């Protein structure tokens, strides 16, 4: 309480008043007003297209030319930013306001050492000489927790891991001791364990430096972890603004309630299924050769999948959880025979005692099985051929695998039915993929897989590119289809919060091996393996609470 | 009695095949709604509309110049009275008489194109030597023996300004003729506008209700059309009375040569891409899709080819081709056919040496596309390699191909000029801008300078290349998905 009182006597670090941004006649940001105080973490939450990133760009005065600020003001420590010249603004960016971005890979210059990149900021804004700058860089690297800082300043970005790159970005942002740090989805591209570390770091820096942070995100779990004050944006409007305790205890706006409900994992009642096995992996291995030299000799192997045993029962869902690079997508591709497996067996059961070993089949012998196993991809934008209409995309499998009606009229009728089933309209048939939103495209991808009446669908992170509310809709659709047709899913994901919603069983993967598998509740509430425990511990508190993790 | 025989030159056949392909291309564009929209968008730019019209005029002239006839006088005279009126034989006779009248007597036995038929006066009005544009006398003095003794004087031209009466000045005459041409072009444009207006109104009435189309810049179209008609008919009309662009060393009309050179330029620009395209498409996509050994072999092939300097390779190939032609006189019947064969070989050589750029581009793009998830989805549907290439990879490469073709066109037209200048281009008897520029090398060194040959070649080539470049800019902007 004393902290709050103390704040009231200070002027806010950043103050937005009635900020509106338009492009042409369309209003993208509509009269947004908020203050950020010293040492406060202010979370700006919203789905894509809600105007949260535009607001942050407006604070940096980096809006694209076509967009216009039609009214309002932005004051940084009582200095109206719109009164400054561009040259004054340049002096301000990086020095008073710093920014970190979502994608650490593309935010760092690949041909400069990371130390030089940070030192450049110091030289530019603080006028430090090279030796002093180097010393300061090492200090900063130590502060953001990069080990062996005096060595790593000479490294290039590609030599660092994703989490370390994000730490370098933070060091760069902190270099000139800014008053305000804008963090635009800084952890979205990172794995859960690294996300937890980066969030910890940001909090620590805030405490130490009394830094104000504008934290832009779509992830309610992260918000719950980080924020002091939370603002929710929807279609350019600020719909709710509250302190954290109030916000989570008593969300008032219906949109906020929906966002919160979608973000929290739910234990859903699931149909049991018959329990008969549909697909089983026995000691599956996929090794990629590492080739070197002029003669392309194989000098070693990357063991992407290294002895995996899994079983997917009929009508049930197996969630495969792991961090990026753990080999979970490779398993999906090996089942589909899109990559050749090095060893082990993928067995498909037509019935309890009639099975085929899929990964030993030739392409021709595999064809009849292709209709049994289908796939849905992560990125709805690259999963559909942009030059084909929706009807052509869905028709392709029916023609190639000789499934369903083979006359054009019959197929059209079936395509219409499928579109309706996945929640689209029959008249969408003649359109092209670019006319649809991400969620709609994902539905088209599902319709394409359903067209050949598969028994198993491999879902390779189908929701990670989608907004929270759209994600919930797609998961619901998958769930309904499972109940209706008894389809099995292999659900590959890195997002622990959706596992209880969709899966019957879960398998945790690390470095090509399954470290733990079992019933969802059992694994989530009472993890045995160390790695599973650390994964769950890294999940945001909101998720952990709902899972009732011990 | 004259007999007409159609002469089929190799390049003619190829150009007409290309036209058929082109028509099929337009048909497939009309059928696909997306493609139709894109092409409409291309022509929504004023510059593209104007450039497109200029390009099509050039192509139309090249097509007209690619239908060749030979008129042969038959010595055996047929008795007219022996033939029954209205019989087949009589009709044949009438036709022969009609065609005989089409062509001037002096041009019998020569290979002529449709374009030549309209420009016979230019072929026939050959002067003795250089004369400047609109001149009435030769460009340099000659020694004349007459009653007054030996004299140096500018000799009068045989064909220029013959219609002028005493006291007429050239400028007044040209002004009058220009006025006449202006009225004529205005009238012709109006006719075009009326015919087009009729179709537009018809299309407007039958258009589906609520269908809204972005308007095309018709004002620019008609302005360009008018300027084109005016410029061409001005040149043509005045060429009846003067040498509008002067004459060259042996007295041939430069305007005629410049217009004949259009065919050579367009031929090299278009047909070379026709040769290059299948190679680039096949090798590029194979390398990108099948990877491994196939990729290695193709990469070595184009890296090797690329590391030999282009002009050197072409020069070597042309010299080999010349010696082959010299030892195989039976391959061609006439000098025209020989020149044509040489043009064809040059096109082949240019095509074989210029596929590497596009191939590299297509390989890289195929590598990228074959990793994209819709290709994985197609594999999961059990589609074979060929179907995946045809249905998923080719359509997503077409914008690259189209952009490369339009960009290459202007480069190739320029390449022809450079190669002819170096001396390894088309046959010296083939009218081409490169040959004209090559000759101009000596003409520029004369005193006084002969400038019109170079200027005409430059002007005609410049307009074509500029139009092609502007058009390709727009094509690239609209078709490249990354441009938006």
TrEMBL record, chain A:
GO molecular function, one term: ATP binding
Keyword Nucleotide-binding in annotation: yes
Pfam families in the record: ABC_tran, oligo_HPY
Keyword set includes Nucleotide-binding: yes
Record's keyword terms, sorted: ATP-binding, Nucleotide-binding, Transport
NCBIfam families: PRK10419.1, PRK11308.1
Name this protein carries in UniProt: ABC transporter ATP-binding protein
Source organism: Thiomicrorhabdus marina
TrEMBL record, chain B:
UniProt keywords, alphabetically: Cell membrane, Membrane, Peptide transport, Protein transport, Transmembrane, Transmembrane helix, Transport
CDD domains (UniProt xref): TM_PBP2 (cd06261)
Domain ABC transmembrane type-1 span(s) in chain numbering: 262-472
Domain of life from the UniProt record: Bacteria
Protein transport keyword on record: yes
InterPro entries: BP-dependent_transpt_permease, MetI-like, MetI-like_sf
Membrane topology: Multi-pass membrane protein
PROSITE patterns: ABC_TM1 (PS50928)
Locations listed in the record: Cell membrane
Entry's transmembrane regions: 6-26, 47-64, 179-199, 220-245, 265-288, 300-321, 341-362, 400-424, 450-472
Pfam families reported in the protein's UniProt record: BPD_transp_1
Family: Belongs to the binding-protein-dependent transport system permease family.
UniProt-recorded name of the protein: ABC transporter permease
Naturally occurring in which organism (per UniProt): Thiomicrorhabdus marina
Lineage: Bacteria, Pseudomonadati, Pseudomonadota, Gammaproteobacteria, Thiotrichales
